[in-house]
Specification:
11 helices, single chain, SDR39U1, 7-stranded parallel beta sheet, alpha/beta
């Protein structure tokens, strides 16, 4: 199977590329800065030779392109997030529409951030509340939701009648790779800073990297599934419980709590944004579960123990497995 991954050089792309290549598939990455024979140049905005070279004749396209959310949410950065996601999705759709032999499925990255900040009930695809007009939250959080909606709309509007389309409303993908979200959380825990933030009641949705890969493969094979699909473990949990389980997995006895203003200072220091810490993302995998997908790591304490063990083995010289 030939799989094309636009924007596949980040953490999630690395996870997918490693696993799919290990399974014997041909994987081609579209990137602005190709560094190997299986990477092809594109600019993420305009059609070019890459369309005929890699999209035409491929079996699957998994578009991950878009500016990283790990940054300060300034107006300029938010606009860049919007533009990079919408433009790359639009041009992928144009390439698929123009292909003589289009791929049979297009998996388009989206985000669980599209759902409302809430504590009362989980968000699935059928009954979940789309965010953007919640009271008592910073106004710019609404723009993050607008980005997610525009991202999905760009795929919906693409004229690709021969290609099934799925929007991956992904929670945070937890992998042991350096620089990923689990690596950052583990770093905080090891420093003794892995306590509750602003009380820690906000929900965190997540998915183990192996379940992310398995769910992606599941969606490729299930011809009856299209449209938005939540990629999140069935066990979202409050931030204070998530960090408590992570500390236990790494055998860290305490984690200092942080107030909201302390979190803002910390986010400023690492050039990130407090929305990533403070928004309550209580998202569950309604469609995946109904379709019969079974998670290997449905609950966080066991998943954290597995990931921590892989980090230890990787740092002792044993390669992180696919």
């Amino acid at each position: 199977m030939k799989v094309v991954i636009p924007g596949g050089t980040g953490q999630v792309g690395t996870v997918l590329r490693r696993a799919l290549t290990g399974a014997g598939h041909e994987v081609v990455v579209l990137t602005r800065n190709p560094r190997s024979g299986r990477e092809v140049r594109w600019d993420g905005e305009t059609l070019g030779p890459w369309a005929d070279e890699v999209i035409d004749g491929s079996d699957v396209v998994i578009n991950l392109a878009g500016r990283s959310v790990s940054c300060r949410y300034t107006p300029a950065n938010l606009q860049e997030m919007m533009d990079s996601r919408v433009r790359s999705t639009r041009v992928v759709g144009e390439a698929i529409a123009g292909a003589t032999r289009p791929p049979r499925v297009w998996l388009q990255m989206s985000t669980a951030t599209i759902y409302a900040h809430r504590f009362d009930a989980p968000n699935d695809e059928a009954t979940g509340v789309i965010g953007g007009d919640e009271e008592g939250v910073p106004r710019y959080w609404g723009y993050s939701v607008e980005i997610a909606k525009a991202w999905e709309r760009a795929q919906e509007n693409a004229e690709t009648p021969s290609t099934r389309k799925v929007a991956l409303r992904s929670a945070m993908v937890m992998s042991p790779d350096r620089g990923g979200v689990f690596d950052v959380l583990l770093w905080l825990a090891r420093l003794g800073l892995g306590g509750p933030v602003a009380g820690g009641g906000q929900y965190v949705s997540w998915i183990h990297d192996r379940d992310f890969v398995r769910a992606t493969e599941f969606l490729v094979e299930r011809d009856d599934l299209e449209g938005p699909v939540n990629l999140a473990a069935p066990g979202p949990l409050p931030q204070r419980e998530l960090m408590r389980a992570l500390r236990a997995a790494w055998r860290v006895p305490v984690g200092l709590p942080a107030t909201k203003w302390m979190a803002e200072l910390g986010a400023l220091a690492i050039r990130s944004d407090t929305e990533l810490l403070l928004k309550s993302r209580r998202v569950v995998p309604g469609r995946l579960t109904q379709a019969g997908f079974s998670f290997e790591h449905p609950e966080w304490p066991e998943a954290a123990a597995d990931l921590a063990g892989r980090v230890r083995r990787g740092r002792s010289g044993t390669p992180i497995p696919a």
